[in-house]
Automatic annotation (TrEMBL):
One Pfam family per UniProt: Ring_hydroxyl_A
Annotated ranges, domain Aromatic-ring-hydroxylating dioxygenase alpha subunit C-terminal: 44-146
Protein species of origin: Streptomyces tuirus
GO function terms (MF aspect): 2 iron, 2 sulfur cluster binding; iron ion binding
Record's protein name: Aromatic-ring-hydroxylating dioxygenase alpha subunit C-terminal domain-containing protein
Region (Disordered): 1-24
Length: 196
Protein backbone atom coordinates (compact mmCIF):
# COMPACT_ATOMS: atom_id res chain seq x y z
CA UNK A 1 0.00 0.00 0.00
CA UNK A 2 1.22 3.48 -0.80
CA UNK A 3 0.63 6.69 1.02
CA UNK A 4 1.99 8.18 4.20
CA UNK A 5 3.87 6.19 6.76
CA UNK A 6 2.49 6.34 10.28
CA UNK A 7 4.41 8.75 12.42
CA UNK A 8 6.91 7.04 14.73
CA UNK A 9 5.87 6.70 18.35
CA UNK A 10 8.23 7.41 21.22
CA UNK A 11 9.55 4.22 22.84
CA UNK A 12 8.66 5.20 26.41
CA UNK A 13 5.38 6.96 25.75
CA UNK A 14 3.84 5.82 29.02
CA UNK A 15 6.44 7.74 31.05
CA UNK A 16 5.98 11.12 29.39
CA UNK A 17 3.88 12.91 32.00
CA UNK A 18 5.77 14.15 35.06
CA UNK A 19 2.72 14.21 37.37
CA UNK A 20 3.10 10.51 38.18
CA UNK A 21 5.49 8.77 35.81
CA UNK A 22 3.51 6.45 33.59
CA UNK A 23 0.14 7.89 34.58
CA UNK A 24 -1.33 9.75 31.67
CA UNK A 25 -4.02 12.36 31.72
CA UNK A 26 -4.55 12.68 35.46
CA UNK A 27 -5.03 16.21 36.72
CA UNK A 28 -2.31 17.45 39.05
CA UNK A 29 -4.77 17.63 41.96
CA UNK A 30 -5.73 13.95 41.51
CA UNK A 31 -2.08 12.90 41.28
CA UNK A 32 -1.29 14.91 44.44
CA UNK A 33 -4.19 13.26 46.29
CA UNK A 34 -2.94 9.83 45.21
CA UNK A 35 0.57 10.61 46.39
CA UNK A 36 -0.85 11.68 49.76
CA UNK A 37 -3.05 8.60 50.17
CA UNK A 38 -0.62 5.92 48.95
CA UNK A 39 2.75 4.79 50.24
CA UNK A 40 5.78 5.59 48.08
CA UNK A 41 5.93 1.90 47.12
CA UNK A 42 2.30 1.93 46.01
CA UNK A 43 2.84 5.12 43.98
CA UNK A 44 5.77 3.41 42.27
CA UNK A 45 3.64 0.35 41.42
CA UNK A 46 0.76 2.49 40.15
CA UNK A 47 3.07 4.69 38.09
CA UNK A 48 4.07 1.65 35.99
CA UNK A 49 0.51 0.44 35.40
CA UNK A 50 -1.15 1.27 32.11
CA UNK A 51 -4.07 -1.14 32.40
CA UNK A 52 -5.35 -2.94 35.48
CA UNK A 53 -8.06 -5.59 35.59
CA UNK A 54 -9.39 -7.64 38.45
CA UNK A 55 -12.33 -9.36 40.04
CA UNK A 56 -13.48 -9.34 43.63
CA UNK A 57 -15.06 -12.75 44.15
CA UNK A 58 -17.63 -13.62 43.07
CA UNK A 59 -19.12 -10.97 40.77
CA UNK A 60 -17.55 -7.50 41.01
CA UNK A 61 -14.89 -6.57 38.46
CA UNK A 62 -12.93 -3.46 37.59
CA UNK A 63 -10.95 -2.20 34.65
CA UNK A 64 -8.65 0.82 34.71
CA UNK A 65 -7.12 2.07 31.50
CA UNK A 66 -6.58 5.12 29.34
CA UNK A 67 -8.73 5.65 26.27
CA UNK A 68 -8.07 8.17 23.56
CA UNK A 69 -10.64 9.86 21.37
CA UNK A 70 -7.80 10.63 18.94
CA UNK A 71 -5.66 7.73 17.65
CA UNK A 72 -2.05 8.01 18.77
CA UNK A 73 -2.81 10.37 21.64
CA UNK A 74 -2.39 9.27 25.28
CA UNK A 75 -6.07 9.51 26.19
CA UNK A 76 -7.73 9.91 29.55
CA UNK A 77 -7.52 7.36 32.35
CA UNK A 78 -10.80 6.07 33.74
CA UNK A 79 -12.03 3.19 35.88
CA UNK A 80 -15.10 1.12 35.17
CA UNK A 81 -16.60 -1.14 37.79
CA UNK A 82 -19.04 -3.90 36.87
CA UNK A 83 -21.40 -5.99 38.93
CA UNK A 84 -22.67 -9.21 37.35
CA UNK A 85 -26.09 -10.41 38.50
CA UNK A 86 -27.52 -13.78 37.38
CA UNK A 87 -31.22 -13.51 36.53
CA UNK A 88 -31.88 -17.07 35.33
CA UNK A 89 -30.34 -20.00 33.46
CA UNK A 90 -28.01 -18.61 30.80
CA UNK A 91 -29.05 -15.03 31.60
CA UNK A 92 -27.19 -12.27 33.40
CA UNK A 93 -27.49 -8.56 33.99
CA UNK A 94 -24.42 -6.39 34.18
CA UNK A 95 -24.35 -3.06 35.97
CA UNK A 96 -21.52 -0.77 34.90
CA UNK A 97 -20.22 2.42 36.47
CA UNK A 98 -17.53 4.95 35.61
CA UNK A 99 -15.54 5.89 38.71
CA UNK A 100 -13.70 9.17 39.11
CA UNK A 101 -12.27 10.81 42.25
CA UNK A 102 -14.94 12.87 44.00
CA UNK A 103 -12.70 15.93 44.27
CA UNK A 104 -11.34 15.76 40.70
CA UNK A 105 -11.89 18.80 38.47
CA UNK A 106 -15.20 18.71 36.61
CA UNK A 107 -13.43 18.91 33.23
CA UNK A 108 -11.55 15.68 34.02
CA UNK A 109 -14.75 13.98 35.25
CA UNK A 110 -16.52 14.89 32.02
CA UNK A 111 -13.61 13.73 29.86
CA UNK A 112 -13.27 10.42 31.77
CA UNK A 113 -17.03 9.76 31.53
CA UNK A 114 -17.01 10.48 27.80
CA UNK A 115 -14.08 8.08 27.26
CA UNK A 116 -15.81 5.42 29.39
CA UNK A 117 -19.09 5.85 27.48
CA UNK A 118 -17.41 5.62 24.08
CA UNK A 119 -15.33 2.57 25.05
CA UNK A 120 -17.15 0.56 27.73
CA UNK A 121 -20.57 2.11 28.16
CA UNK A 122 -23.58 0.08 27.01
CA UNK A 123 -23.13 1.30 23.44
CA UNK A 124 -19.35 1.59 23.65
CA UNK A 125 -17.04 0.28 20.97
CA UNK A 126 -15.43 -2.43 23.11
CA UNK A 127 -18.52 -3.28 25.14
CA UNK A 128 -20.55 -4.08 22.04
CA UNK A 129 -17.75 -6.26 20.68
CA UNK A 130 -17.36 -8.11 24.00
CA UNK A 131 -21.13 -8.49 24.37
CA UNK A 132 -21.36 -10.22 21.01
CA UNK A 133 -18.50 -12.59 21.88
CA UNK A 134 -19.84 -13.53 25.34
CA UNK A 135 -23.36 -14.04 23.99
CA UNK A 136 -22.10 -16.45 21.35
CA UNK A 137 -19.84 -18.28 23.82
CA UNK A 138 -22.77 -18.74 26.22
CA UNK A 139 -25.03 -20.00 23.43
CA UNK A 140 -22.37 -22.34 22.09
CA UNK A 141 -21.53 -23.72 25.55
CA UNK A 142 -25.10 -25.03 25.81
CA UNK A 143 -24.90 -26.95 22.53
CA UNK A 144 -24.35 -30.69 22.21
CA UNK A 145 -21.15 -30.10 20.22
CA UNK A 146 -19.23 -28.77 23.22
CA UNK A 147 -20.53 -30.95 26.04
CA UNK A 148 -17.29 -32.93 26.10
CA UNK A 149 -15.04 -29.94 25.48
CA UNK A 150 -12.69 -28.89 28.28
CA UNK A 151 -11.95 -25.27 29.08
CA UNK A 152 -8.45 -25.76 30.50
CA UNK A 153 -7.51 -22.18 31.48
CA UNK A 154 -3.84 -23.02 31.01
CA UNK A 155 -2.55 -19.77 29.55
CA UNK A 156 0.11 -18.39 31.85
CA UNK A 157 0.62 -21.50 33.98
CA UNK A 158 4.31 -20.61 34.00
CA UNK A 159 3.66 -17.01 35.11
CA UNK A 160 5.67 -15.96 38.12
CA UNK A 161 4.40 -13.81 40.98
CA UNK A 162 5.58 -10.22 40.62
CA UNK A 163 8.37 -9.93 43.18
CA UNK A 164 8.37 -6.13 43.28
CA UNK A 165 4.62 -5.68 43.85
CA UNK A 166 4.19 -3.59 47.00
CA UNK A 167 0.45 -3.99 47.48
CA UNK A 168 -1.77 -6.77 48.70
CA UNK A 169 -3.15 -9.26 46.21
CA UNK A 170 -1.82 -11.76 43.72
CA UNK A 171 0.00 -10.21 40.76
CA UNK A 172 1.69 -12.19 38.02
CA UNK A 173 3.88 -11.34 35.06
CA UNK A 174 2.86 -11.21 32.27
CA UNK A 175 -0.59 -10.05 33.27
CA UNK A 176 -2.36 -11.35 30.14
CA UNK A 177 -3.12 -14.95 31.15
CA UNK A 178 -5.77 -17.16 32.76
CA UNK A 179 -4.67 -16.64 36.38
CA UNK A 180 -7.81 -14.70 37.31
CA UNK A 181 -10.05 -17.42 35.83
CA UNK A 182 -8.16 -20.18 37.66
CA UNK A 183 -8.39 -18.27 40.93
CA UNK A 184 -12.10 -17.56 40.44
CA UNK A 185 -13.02 -21.18 39.71
CA UNK A 186 -10.77 -22.51 42.49
CA UNK A 187 -12.48 -20.22 45.00
CA UNK A 188 -15.92 -21.18 43.63
CA UNK A 189 -14.96 -24.85 44.07
CA UNK A 190 -13.91 -24.17 47.66
CA UNK A 191 -17.39 -22.77 48.36
CA UNK A 192 -19.08 -25.76 46.69
CA UNK A 193 -17.23 -28.30 48.83
CA UNK A 194 -17.54 -26.25 52.03
CA UNK A 195 -13.85 -25.37 52.46
CA UNK A 196 -14.52 -21.67 53.05
Amino acid sequence: MGGEHPRPRPRHRSRAQPVLPGVRRLPQSVADDMKGALSPEQVEVFSRVRTAVGTLFPNLSFLMQPFSLVPGEPGVRFVTMRLYHPVGPGRMEMYSWCLVPKDAPQEYKDEAYRAYTLAFGQAGTFEQDDFENWTKVTRSAASTMVRDLDFPYIMGMDSAPAEDFAGPGHVVVPYVNDTNFRNLWTRWGDYLVGEV
